[in-house]
Amino acid sequence: MPPHIERMLLAYAKAHVQDAHWIEAYLKFRKAVAEEFERLLCAGAAAIDLPEVDDGELDPVEQGSAAA
Questions:
Q1: Distances (CA, A) of 40 to 32, 33, 36
Q2: What is the 3-state secondary structure (H, E, C) of the chain?
Q3: Which of 16, 31, 44, 53 gives the lowest tally of CB atoms within 10 Å of its CB?
Q4: Which segments of the chain have a pLDDT < 50?
């Protein structure tokens, strides 16, 4: 979220106390999602660097799609 939007939401929350809880919860949720996304990206990058091992057998999901 652009910083200016976050600042506007926080200013609105100060002026409208009845909406403050929901705005703060929304901003907290957005931050948590962004952090988790970044963590998954970093973890995914580490997994991409690993060579794929092919044991020659199909797992149950692959067996189902191979039969189709």
A1: 12, 10, 6
A2: CCHHHHHHHHHHHHHCHHHHHHHHHHHHHHHHHHHHHHHHHHHHHHHHCCCCCCCCCCCHHHHHHHHC
A3: 53
A4: none
